[in-house]
Automatic annotation (TrEMBL), chain A:
<keyword id="KW-1133">Transmembrane helix</keyword>
<feature type="transmembrane region" description="Helical">
    <location>
        <begin position="42"/>
        <end position="62"/>
    </location>
</feature>
<dbReference type="GO" id="GO:0035869">
    <property type="term" value="C:ciliary transition zone"/>
</dbReference>
<keyword id="KW-0472">Membrane</keyword>
<dbReference type="GO" id="GO:1905515">
    <property type="term" value="P:non-motile cilium assembly"/>
</dbReference>
<protein>
    <submittedName>
        <fullName>TMM80 protein</fullName>
    </submittedName>
</protein>
<feature type="transmembrane region" description="Helical">
    <location>
        <begin position="6"/>
        <end position="30"/>
    </location>
</feature>
<keyword id="KW-0966">Cell projection</keyword>
<feature type="transmembrane region" description="Helical">
    <location>
        <begin position="106"/>
        <end position="129"/>
    </location>
</feature>
Automatic annotation (TrEMBL), chain B:
<dbReference type="GO" id="GO:0036038">
    <property type="term" value="C:MKS complex"/>
</dbReference>
<comment type="subunit">
    <text>Part of the tectonic-like complex (also named B9 complex).</text>
</comment>
<dbReference type="Pfam" id="PF07773">
    <property type="entry name" value="TCTN_DUF1619"/>
</dbReference>
<comment type="similarity">
    <text>Belongs to the tectonic family.</text>
</comment>
<keyword id="KW-0732">Signal</keyword>
<keyword id="KW-0325">Glycoprotein</keyword>
<dbReference type="InterPro" id="IPR040354">
    <property type="entry name" value="TCTN1-3"/>
</dbReference>
<dbReference type="InterPro" id="IPR057724">
    <property type="entry name" value="TCTN1-3_N"/>
</dbReference>
<dbReference type="GO" id="GO:1904491">
    <property type="term" value="P:protein localization to ciliary transition zone"/>
</dbReference>
Length: 130, 543
């Protein structure tokens, strides 16, 4: 059976990620105006945010499809993509050019969500395999 | 180590390292080595100074306020206590906003970057980057290697400008001087190229002989001026009755000690001689001491301090102004050495200056005994701006011969070594030949009617030196500059006297200073003219 908590989590994650993406983008724009943010540092930050958005969309789609069709392959792929999403989130938490307190908060929430999702995915894969 | 020094010199020099420790940063500390009023973070202020403050002009020193948590140094005055004291607290300052900066991975984010110092290597690149009318605030390549250069700065020579305090390893070279009263204050820093001579009183006693630092030689020699050590040039020992003897060996440091109820080797005077190059670096420092002794009754001694600066490879010549002549200072003069001006490199000074003031431009000094021949060659230096006239009476007897008398009178009027050149500015150096004005000599005769038939004997009776000077430079601070010096010898005919008769003629010499500066003329704009040009065919069809 498909995991209902996992599906709920995917739905919430999707909405939260839209908020996260807009907030991070707005804060990068704010930082570039208020602080000295040379192009060498602004480029990578924006690029990584874009990559993260694409990966997130892919990840959520694959995970949702895998959960609903009870197939472990898309779920497994989604889990692998989650690892890279976690890395990107850690980048925005620690290695960004300017890390504001708001950045710390939203990234911490995102990481918590990823962790919970990963646990539920593993359980779902285990359930589907057996 | 010669290669290291050459390599260090080839590195672009950076400015002073940025201060990032809030406990050490003080924005109101403006006066060097002195306490600023109401500046609670000034390290030069003592507890006694703090008790006189009314408020703290800088209450908080923090870094960028946008950081989430940072150290802040707070300064406040506790007026309840008696005497009021300064309270210094290092606290953690927290920014409550959710958009405060938690961390930053970009090093130059929150501080101004140290600009690159131009050197021969990077000058072209810097000119390309910053030479146009506008440039980007964030250039492509940041110089992130500033930390490595700071350590080598301490050993490099430091270039001074006029008036800048001379830096020593820990603070500044101090010349004790009287501040408000005559008591010595040790906080007066010596300025570069500022010749000072001060005298002040210090309280001493035989019991505290070895404890008072400021009377010991070590206090004045232990601070080295950056890379240059202060050497002891000479030591003069003054006994209790005032007699001074120069010591032979001046290598040993003589510290105050008690001997026979006297405290000896007390510093009574220090004279610093600093040698500098024309690039503004100090290469040598020497100190000459006068040591004395005090007995049990002495409560205070007078110390005198002096500092003088000499450019390397030049002899110290006292200046008569900087640059224009100062009224009352002697007019500087000199000679051209033999063989000049061949166009070879001039290794020595182009002009030999007379440091003996009595061989300068001098005139005859009138004595109480008005007899010229008994005048003994007393001369007085010519001071700028002071017109002088002097003279004596010459008793001519029949036995006097013409030629020796003429020569004697010329020696009397002009002196033993009458100079050939006069400095146009008070600080003209001997190497700059164009700064020196040649003395023009004129001869006139007193007799109006020139009787060429008589084989007359002309004896000089008067020397008139006319110095023409002008005001040079800005209208606000004009400098006096000597433009022309003319020495006119007036001769008169010596008539042969019948034997036994005597005649007395007056001999005069005078100096006149004439101001030939042209007055500043106002400039008016030209009247506007109407420039009307009619078109070519204005009067068509009549023309």
């Amino acid at each position: 059976l498909s995991s209902v908590p996992l599906q709920i989590l995917f739905y919430v994650n999707g909405i939260y990620y839209i908020f996260y993406f807009l907030a991070t983008l707005a804060m990068i724009v704010y930082k570039s105006q208020v602080f000295s943010y040379p192009d060498d540092f602004l480029g990578p930050d924006l690029t990584l945010l874009l990559i993260m958005a694409i990966l997130e969309a892919l990840r959520l789609h694959l995970g949702s499809k895998g959960n609903l069709t009870e197939e472990e392959a898309p779920l497994g792929l989604s889990l692998v993509i989650t690892v890279s999403s976690v890395l990107l989130s850690v980048y925005f938490l620690v290695w960004q050019t300017y890390v504001l307190k708001a950045d710390v908060i939203i990234n911490a929430v995102l990481l918590f969500t990823y962790g919970l999702e990963s646990v539920l995915k593993v359980i779902a894969i285990a359930a589907f395999v057996s | 180590s010669a290669e290291n020094r050459a390599a260090a010199r080839a590195q672009p020099r950076s400015g002073p390292a940025p201060v990032t420790d809030v406990a050490k940063l003080c924005v109101c500390d403006l006066l060097v080595a002195q306490c600023d009023v109401n500046c609670c973070c000034d390290p030069d202020c003592s507890a006694a100074d703090f008790s006189l403050f009314t408020t703290c002009s800088v209450p908080v020193v923090t870094g960028d306020s946008r950081l989430c948590s940072q150290k802040a140094a707070t300064y406040s005055l506790d007026v309840e206590a008696n005497p009021p004291e300064r309270i210094f607290k290092l606290i953690d300052h927290v920014n409550p906003s959710v958009f405060c900066i938690h961390t930053t991975n970009y090093k130059q984010a929150l501080s101004f970057s140290s600009p690159e110092m131009p050197t021969a290597e990077n000058f072209d690149q810097l000119l390309k980057q910053f030479g146009s009318s506008s440039f980007s605030a964030e250039p492509d390549s940041w110089n992130t290697d500033t930390d490595a250069q700071n350590l080598s700065d301490v050993n490099e020579t430091y270039r001074y400008e006029y008036g800048v305090p001379i830096q020593t390893v820990d603070a500044f070279l101090r010349l004790p001087s009287p501040v408000v009263s005559s008591w010595c204050s040790d906080a007066n820093p010596a300025g570069f190229l500022v010749n000072q001579a001060t005298k002040c009183i210090r309280s001493v006693s035989v019991e505290k002989c070895g404890n008072i630092q400021a009377v010991s030689m070590l206090f004045y020699t232990n601070s080295s001026i950056l890379a240059v050590n202060i050497t002891v040039q000479s030591i003069v020992v003054q006994s209790l009755n005032g007699m001074r003897t120069l010591l032979n060996g001046s290598d040993v440091l003589r510290l105050p000690m008690i001997l026979d109820e006297l405290c000896i080797n007390i510093v009574l005077g220090v004279s610093y001689h600093i040698t500098y190059t024309d690039a503004g670096e100090i290469i040598e420092a020497a100190a000459s001491f006068v040591l004395g002794a005090i007995n049990k009754e002495a409560l205070s001694i007078q110390q005198s301090f002096e500092i003088s600066f000499t450019q390397v490879n030049t002899k110290p010549v006292p200046l008569s102004g900087n640059p224009g002549y100062v009224v009352g200072l002697p007019v500087r003069a000199g000679f051209r050495p033999q063989g000049y001006p061949f166009p070879v490199e001039i290794l020595l000074a182009a002009l030999i200056l007379n440091t003996n003031k009595y061989s300068q431009l001098t005139i005859l000094q009138s004595t109480s005994n008005q007899d010229c021949l008994a005048a003994q060659g007393a001369r007085t230096p010519i001071l700028f701006g002071y017109n002088m006239i002097s003279g004596c009476k010459l008793r001519i007897t029949a036995a006097m011969k013409c030629q020796p008398l003429t020569q004697t009178l010329l020696d009397l009027l002009k002196g033993q070594s009458f100079p050939e050149y006069v400095a146009s500015f008070g600080n003209s150096q001997a190497q700059d030949v164009l700064d020196w004005v040649p003395i023009t000599h004129l001869h006139t005769s007193e007799q109006r009617i020139y009787n060429t038939f008589q084989s007359s004997c002309q004896i000089p009776v008067s020397l008139e030196i006319e110095v023409k000077w002008t005001k040079y430079g800005s209208l606000v601070n004009p400098q006096a500059r000597i433009v022309n010096v003319t020495a006119t010898i007036t001769t008169t005919t010596l008539k042969q006297l019948p034997s036994g008769r005597e005649r007395t003629i007056p001999i005069t010499s005078s100096v006149v200073f004439t101001d030939i500066s042209s007055p500043a003329e106002p400039g008016y704009k030209a009247w506007p003219t109407i420039n009307v040009k009619l078109p070519f065919d204005f009067f068509f069809p009549f023309v």
